[in-house]
């Protein structure tokens, strides 16, 4: 699922590869909800953990 979303937005992701905050914002909007549901975790907690680990 994640790889598909990245591939569908590859040009944008590549263009903004050095802006971790913007990439985290994109991840929150495009990926977080689906993964949180799949893993049965709280979306906000997953978002926070991703930002802390990714540096955005």
Summarize the structure.
The chain is mainly α. It has helices at about 1-10, 10-15, 20-40, 45-55.
Largest sheet: none
Work out the number of β strands: 0
Total domains: 1
Structural class: mainly alpha
What form results from the Cα inertia axes?
Answer: flat
Helix content: over 70%
* Low-pLDDT windows of residues: none
Number of helices: 4
Strand content: under 5%
Average pLDDT, rounded to a whole number, is 94
Distance between the termini: 21 Å
Task: Report the order of strands and helices.
Answer: HHHH
Radius of gyration: 11 Å
Structure explained in plain terms:
With 56 residues, the protein is an all-alpha fold. The chain has one domain (2-54). Helix 3 (20-39) crosses helix 4. The chain is built from 4 helices and no strands. It starts with a helix and ends with a helix. 2% of the residues are buried.
Fold topology:
Elements: H1 2-8, H2 10-15, H3 20-39, H4 43-54
Helix pairs in contact: 3-4
Features:
mainly alpha, 4 helices, 56 residues
